[in-house]
Design a protein that fits this description.
CATH class: Alpha Beta
Number of domains: 1
CATH topology: Cytidine Deaminase, domain 2
Oligomer: single chain
CATH architecture: 3-Layer(aba) Sandwich
Number of helices: 4
Strand order of the largest sheet: 2-1-3-4-5
CATH superfamily: Cytidine Deaminase, domain 2
Order of helices and strands: HHEEHEHEE
Helix content: 25-40%
Distance between the termini: 28 Å
Radius of gyration: 14 Å
Structural class: alpha+beta
Length: 137
């Protein structure tokens, strides 16, 4: 998919629409980012409307709990600007299959812990060259 294939109003709707989430992640985490390992954080308002996409590449495939917390920490704090809680949608990109790893689960756990009760986690997903799947809580 590319931006020309999306409906004209795609950016006027919440990012976690079930019928569109995989396509949006596919746009933001391109093939190169998947090959290199990537972390995507879509910073959103409290209702799930996109404010800023942030992507970091060259993310190692094996990380500790603390690595994941540090990797997400600054982004999560950015959502707490002016004491207004927002929301995040997170994707972990890598080249290989769709089986979940311990590091995938650590990203999910770090997101839940760091966001607490004041920031909505709209989802944490794995995206690879083989497709996309949610990482359940």
């Amino acid at each position: 998919m590319n931006f020309e294939n999306l409906p004209k109003n795609w950016d006027e709707e919440p990012v976690n629409r079930p019928d569109r989430i995989n396509d949006l992640l596919d746009l933001f985490v391109n093939e190169r980012a998947r090959e290199r390992g990537a972390l995507l954080i879509l910073i959103c308002d409290p209702d799930g409307y996109l404010l800023a996409p942030c992507i970091v590449e060259d993310i190692p495939q094996e990380l500790t709990d603390e690595d994941c917390r540090q990797g997400l920490g600054g982004f999560i704090e950015a959502v707490r600007v002016d004491d207004v809680a927002g929301a995040v949608l997170i994707a972990v990109g890598r080249a290989d299959g769709l089986s979940l790893t311990e590091t995938d689960r650590r990203w999910r756990s770090a997101a839940e812990d760091l966001c607490g009760d004041d920031i909505r986690v709209l989802g944490v997903h794995l995206i690879t060259q083989h497709g996309t799947r949610p990482i359940a809580a």
